[in-house]
Task: inverse folding
């Protein structure tokens, strides 16, 4: 299966690395424009209240303040990413009539400097009528609970059901049925670059917005509709981004305010959030209450699964609808369930909205799946590795209503990780306090369901070829730090037989790069934008091949190739020219017309979930201090299948980042909340693991080739975010006997469990 | 947050610093490494009228050690200097350890022991081992100098026995008695960089198999770093046994007055006092036995 590559599969250094290492990369907050104003947002101190009056007069008259706005100054048009279902669009840029969480934005100030804007906020007088708040899914979904959105009287904004086979019959035919309830908590994306947006109005009234976003195209469209403007009147430029992890994939208040206030004042306006604001009011991973019932045959064969998940969505939908859909799909993506039923509910509460976060519902759903597999393995007397091998999805399996799995290295991953970790002996023979555990994952390589209702291809690319032997790649795909600019250049260099330095790239500028790209989320970019680049590159090649064929009077049966900077006959390299000369020939044949090609990709005939699936398995070894309850993760082993590895170093970076996030999710990170208020709004008390907390890690990339992916590649960015928490949790159980069903695993919970045991 | 307007002084002598402090009166703050003060100012929790930096005063720099006189840590000696100072590592390993594990590299490179004490956080890492080792602080004012045992220095979170117009100029720790050993143990959720959820500093002085004296100091489990007096007295003159250590550790836990906050619950903190006290005593005993 392995194809021979020159540039793909190599540790090509990231093209942005030197710039970032030198501190020369410009992020949005680094930008300064002449006359620029600084914006700050007034946030609600109450979790649920009616706004009786907002008096901004004192703030507006503070010297240095140039603009103060409330909802009254906006067109009051709601927005939300699920454009296909306008009912789900539930957010105003500034609160209208009502605030729904602590941190909900009510007003914005733009002033000559940040301090003046901050001072002005204190001068805004708001009269509230406080309403009772609800802070968990149980109290929010109870009859008679306070209504958070009038359109949604039961606070359940999304209902999602999946059903195939006959679940009840499945359970009655099972030898062993297991039922558990899991709760998982909210964690922060904690991207190192807080959100920032800078808007400028052109002389003709059009807006340019530089913003820290994963989704320039979505921001462009929604900003236009929210301000009552036309899409083409908005230009969104994505500068360098310091991480997103799902937290920057919607239109956000400060983007609207910056644009609106720039229009009102005629001056550029910049907003940058503080870390405290990010923790207090920022998006986060959905807390979920997961009820899972599974049935097995005596020999470990899975028969049925009944999954009910309630998502604590916080005050607005944000990307909650997608998470609600996907956590149901993830519930049956890893193993073969002949009978499956899912019911997901997205529930409003008076907390900061949860949204997409690395894994998009998978870390939660798979935590339950994997822990339950381990419980079942123990009770059935089967090794957890063997139980997984027995039920693992394999290539060709059809997941009803989802898709048929094409490439699948899951079984190989399980075997490889068991082998490299010494699973069989260690599971039997570790000392007290030491443990080893396993967790697995499956993930999507981009989504199919067109909730944004775009009229454009999902990804697009334009290639301009030049007679000096270089090309210019234009794509709306967004490098947010994950390295897509490098990977797309690698794919293009490989296909055109060029070197990395022959390629210039312009990405993620909505007025310059081809329409469209849905953004960097769902692990979609390598596959979708990669395919678009390949599509365009092949069109370029056709032109070049034609010219070279004519020049050397080649028989039509000659196959040509682009290789080592040349365009030549595959069998007789003498019949060929340099890439640049070939471009010049095409141009001459077209009377000077530049050689340009467009390519695109939209998944079709791939069901409604994803065109390709990634898989993997991970083993963690831990040592637990049984007196303090502290967990030391000693080693991680990972074997995974992301198809062709385009850039090994980047994939290993994704793995390291996933382990870091998984470590925090399992053991240390949580937003400590009291009555809707977040108490730990800084990195001292939000316990994100540091470099010094990272365990050593070994990895095997299982060799597969995904036919739908560019050069065989599929996702590597998010799937790996799922297995770490269940692997650590299972290892903690192995070490202590404490089975965690409510994340995070804290020292206190471990000690309580140990005391109970005694 | 806008930094409040303030005057900045960097006097070159202690006398000048003391004069400035008395001239500026309330609203003037003394600045050593700034790792607490500047953060508080950035968050609007402190609005000083004047900052008097000690950095330029030569006499307050550095660490001095003599086998007779013991250890003197100047007010502007950095935590990082303390952490790896060879005499401190050899003779006061508990103090060195506290300075090695607290906060993060950046804070340790700027912050000072004096600042850590004057900030008077209940969780201040350097306080428990220093109190356990009988440290005293020297407080200077225009009226002269006074020395105060460190265990009488703390009066509440952020509150100390310092009078207006006083500056802490140094911390003195006597040379450890023979057959003595110290230890500092702390616990926090994250191993790399964190604030202690519980810290315990101890010193024991042995007489053969008997414990002549023990000092047990608990951090982050009361409004001030506190001595567990009853636990200490349980050990005095007693033969060193595992059973005794367990009783003492439990007693220390009884004496702690922890609260629940975002870092840990009161219940957990109390349990950890017992565990850390026992571990610290064991390590201190081992060190004392080697002497």
Result:
């Amino acid at each position: 299966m392995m194809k021979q590559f020159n540039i793909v599969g190599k540790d090509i250094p990231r093209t942005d690395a030197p710039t970032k290492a030198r501190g020369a990369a410009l992020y949005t907050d680094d930008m300064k424009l002449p006359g620029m104003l600084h914006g700050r947002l007034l946030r609600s101190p109450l979790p649920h209240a009616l706004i009786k009056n907002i008096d901004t007069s004192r703030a507006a008259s503070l010297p240095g303040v140039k603009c103060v706005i409330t909802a009254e100054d906006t067109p009051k048009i709601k927005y939300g990413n699920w454009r296909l279902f306008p009912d789900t669009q539930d957010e105003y840029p500034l609160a209208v009539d009502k605030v729904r969480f602590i941190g909900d934005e009510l007003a914005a100030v733009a002033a000559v400097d940040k301090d003046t804007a901050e001072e002005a906020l204190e001068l805004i007088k708001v009269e509230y009528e406080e309403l009772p708040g609800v802070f968990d899914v149980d109290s929010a979904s109870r009859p008679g609970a306070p209504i958070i959105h009038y359109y949604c009287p039961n606070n359940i904004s999304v209902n999602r059901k999946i059903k195939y086979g006959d679940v009840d019959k499945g359970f009655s035919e099972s030898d062993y049925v297991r039922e558990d309830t899991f709760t998982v908590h909210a964690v922060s994306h904690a991207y190192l670059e807080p959100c920032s947006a800078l808007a400028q109005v052109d002389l003709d009234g059009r807006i340019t917005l530089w913003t820290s976003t994963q989704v320039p195209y979505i921001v462009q469209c929604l900003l236009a509709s929210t301000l009552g403007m036309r899409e083409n009147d908005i230009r969104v430029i994505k500068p360098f981004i310091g991480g997103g992890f799902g937290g920057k994939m919607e239109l956000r208040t400060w983007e609207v305010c910056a644009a609106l206030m720039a229009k009102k004042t005629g001056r550029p306006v910049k907003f940058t959030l503080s870390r405290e604001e990010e923790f207090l009011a920022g998006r986060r991973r959905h807390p979920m209450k997961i009820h899972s019932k599974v049935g097995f045959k005596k020999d470990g064969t899975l028969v049925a699964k009944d999954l009910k998940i309630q998502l604590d969505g916080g005050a607005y939908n944000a990307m909650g609808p997608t998470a609600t859909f996907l956590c149901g799909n993830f519930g049956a993506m890893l193993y073969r369930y002949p009978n499956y039923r899912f019911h997901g509910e997205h529930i409003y509460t008076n907390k900061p909205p949860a949204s997409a976060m690395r894994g998009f519902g998978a870390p939660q759903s798979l935590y339950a799946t994997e822990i339950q597999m381990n419980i079942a393995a123990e009770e059935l007397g089967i090794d957890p590795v063997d139980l997984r091998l027995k039920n693992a999805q394999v290539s060709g399996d059809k997941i009803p209503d989802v898709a048929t799995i094409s490439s699948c290295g899951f079984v190989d991953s399980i075997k490889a990780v068991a082998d490299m970790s010494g699973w069989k002996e260690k599971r039997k023979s570790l000392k007290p306090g030491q443990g080893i555990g396993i967790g697995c994952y499956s993930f999507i390589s981009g989504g199919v369901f067109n909730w944004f209702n775009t009229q454009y291809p999902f990804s697009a690319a334009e290639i301009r070829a030049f007679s000096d032997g270089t090309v210019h790649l234009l794509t709306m795909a967004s490098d947010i730090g994950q390295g897509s600019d490098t990977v797309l250049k690698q794919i293009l260099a490989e296909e055109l037989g060029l070197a990395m330095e022959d390629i210039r790239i312009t990405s993620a500028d909505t007025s310059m790069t081809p329409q469209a790209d849905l953004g960097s989320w769902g692990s979609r970019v390598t596959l979708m934008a990669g395919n678009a680049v390949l599509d365009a590159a092949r069109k370029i090649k056709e032109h070049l091949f034609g010219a070279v064929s004519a020049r050397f009077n080649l028989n039509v049966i000659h196959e040509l190739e682009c290789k080592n900077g040349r365009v030549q006959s595959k069998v007789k390299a003498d019949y060929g020219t340099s890439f640049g000369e070939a471009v010049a020939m095409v141009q001459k044949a077209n009377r000077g017309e530049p050689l340009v090609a467009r390519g695109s990709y939209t998944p079709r005939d791939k069901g409604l979930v994803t065109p390709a699936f990634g898989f993997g398995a991970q083993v963690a070894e831990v040592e637990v201090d049984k007196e303090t309850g502290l967990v030391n993760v000693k080693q991680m082993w990972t074997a995974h299948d992301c198809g062709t590895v385009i850039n090994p170093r980047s994939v290993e970076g994704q793995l390291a980042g996933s382990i870091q996030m998984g470590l925090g999710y399992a053991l240390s990170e949580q937003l400590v909340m009291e009555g809707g208020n977040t108490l730990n709004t800084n990195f001292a008390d939000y316990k994100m693991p540091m470099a010094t907390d990272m365990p050593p890690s070994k990895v095997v990339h299982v060799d597969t080739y995904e036919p739908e992916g560019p050069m065989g590649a599929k996702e590597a960015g998010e799937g790996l975010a799922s297995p770490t928490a269940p692997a650590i949790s299972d290892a903690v159980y192995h070490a202590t006997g404490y089975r965690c069903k409510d994340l995070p695993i804290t020292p206190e919970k471990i000690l309580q469990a140990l005391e109970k045991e005694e | 947050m806008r930094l409040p307007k303030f005057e900045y002084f960097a006097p070159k002598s202690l006398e000048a610093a003391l004069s400035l402090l008395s001239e500026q009166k309330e609203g003037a703050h003394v600045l050593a490494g700034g790792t607490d003060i500047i953060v508080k100012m950035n968050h609007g929790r402190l609005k000083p009228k004047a900052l008097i930096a000690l950095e330029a005063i030569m006499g307050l720099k550095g660490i001095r050690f003599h086998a007779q006189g013991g250890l003197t840590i100047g007010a502007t000696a950095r935590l990082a200097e303390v952490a790896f100072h060879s005499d401190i590592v050899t003779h006061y390993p508990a103090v060195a350890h506290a300075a090695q594990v607290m906060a993060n590299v950046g804070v340790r490179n700027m912050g000072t022991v004096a600042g850590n004490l004057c900030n008077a956080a209940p969780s201040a890492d350097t306080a428990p081992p220093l109190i356990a080792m009988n440290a005293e602080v020297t407080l200077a004012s225009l009226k002269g100098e006074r020395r105060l045992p460190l265990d009488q220095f703390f009066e509440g979170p952020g509150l100390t026995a310092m009078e207006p117009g006083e500056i802490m100029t140094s911390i003195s720790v006597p040379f450890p008695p023979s057959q003595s050993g110290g230890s500092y143990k702390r616990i926090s959720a994250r191993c790399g960089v964190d604030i202690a959820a519980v810290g315990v500093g101890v010193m024991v002085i042995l007489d053969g198999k008997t414990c002549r004296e023990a000092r047990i100091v608990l951090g982050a489990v009361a409004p001030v770093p506190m001595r567990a007096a009853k636990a200490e007295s349980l050990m005095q003159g007693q033969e060193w046994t595992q059973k005794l250590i367990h009783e003492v550790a439990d007693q220390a836990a009884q004496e702690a007055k922890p609260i629940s906050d975002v870092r840990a619950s009161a219940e957990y903190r109390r349990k950890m006092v017992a565990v850390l006290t026992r571990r610290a005593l064991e390590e201190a005993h081992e060190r004392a036995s080697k002497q």
Remarks:
- DSSP finds 19 helices and 32 strands in chain A.
- Chain A has a mean pLDDT of 97.
- The longest strand of chain A covers residues 302-314.
- Chain A touches chain B at residues 114-115, 118-119, 627-628, 630, 632, 667-668, 672, 679-680, 684-685, 687-693, 747-748, 751 (CB under 8 Å).
